[in-house]
Design a protein that fits this description.
This protein is of the alpha/beta class. It has 11 helices and 10 strands. This is DUF7281 domain-containing protein.
Length: 296
């Protein structure tokens, strides 16, 4: 199984392929991106061209670029000529196992606005962050949230999936959930605070982790003390997991998970480990979601 190449590596290959059509002497300068491509080819035991000028420039063979592209396509990855400039993570996930190739990130079109006059809202066609008028995202002070007003806490791993909670909720069937974005570096501290408060004061209510079905997600849920995972039904998972969503860099979590994984989640861990597969959250639209208790 070949790993995917980065978007920049694919861009370099596509550029060289185009240049070689018109100039057979075209070369690529030494760079980390070039090194990534050559290491990828070394793993597959072939050289896609040759070094020139004492390893300072590299000339690709156009036929080998075509071969690289075919290998990527055969593995289910996006080809080197695909353009993801107008894709967000959700749309990219429909075209490639690697949704992170999308150029439109979940927060690229958002701003935080200070409004002191209510009339100013008349000039804004949304309320805070509005998803087709079915969801509103707001920033909250964690100290001002009355946790006992909610029946369960749901922490969502990915920002784009959090923005689309209004779509997922119809498949989750949860009563009075408090739905929180797990957060990047700006929001993750407050998320940890509210999770601790929930676990300390609402111990009879579910603390639910909704994220990627992979070793990293299971590690987070296990170490943080969540009581439930929100995921598609097990039979559906077995038929829809993707080998590219079991990255090698997560293998380091497996040994600890085999020791610490709660009994109720061990069948999920076994599915990942035995099939060496996973599934990112962006592939979980339009399918029933169920709760997996850590107690089984």
């Amino acid at each position: 199984m070949a790993d995917d190449l980065s978007l920049k590596a694919k861009g370099l290959l596509a550029t060289q392929h185009h240049k070689l059509l018109f100039d057979e002497a075209s070369v690529a300068n030494v760079s980390r991106i070039l090194e990534e491509i050559l290491n990828w080819c070394d793993d597959l035991e072939f050289q896609p061209g040759k070094w020139l000028k004492s390893n300072k420039t590299y000339r690709f063979d156009r036929d080998y670029i075509t071969q690289i592209n075919q290998i990527l396509v055969d593995e289910g990855y996006a080809n080197i000529f695909d353009n993801f400039d107008q894709d967000n993570h959700r749309s990219a996930a429909q075209r490639s196992p690697n949704e992170k190739q999308a150029k439109r990130k979940p927060t690229h079109h958002l701003i935080l606005c200070a409004v002191t006059e209510g009339a100013a809202l008349d000039a804004i066609n949304q309320c805070f962050y509005s998803c087709q008028h079915q969801q509103t995202n707001i920033e909250l002070d964690v100290s001002q949230v009355r946790l006992n007003a909610f029946d369960c806490l749901v922490i969502v791993e990915n920002r784009d999936s959090f923005n689309d909670w209004f779509e997922y909720k119809h498949y989750a069937n949860l009563s009075k959930p408090l739905v929180i974005y797990r957060g990047d570096k700006y929001h993750s501290t407050a998320c940890k605070t509210i999770l601790r408060s929930w676990l300390n004061t609402q111990d009879d209510k579910p603390a639910i982790y909704f994220g990627d079905f992979d070793l990293a997600g299971l590690r987070i849920a296990t170490s943080a003390g969540y009581s439930h995972l929100l995921l598609p039904e097990y039979t559906w998972l077995t038929k829809n997991v993707i080998k590219q969503h079991y990255p090698d860099n997560q293998q380091k979590y497996l040994a600890r998970l085999e020791l610490d994984c709660p009994i109720g989640w061990q069948p999920l861990l076994q599915l990942m480990r035995n099939k060496r597969t996973g599934l990112r959250q962006q592939k979980m639209y339009d399918t029933p979601l169920i709760l997996y208790s850590n107690l089984g």
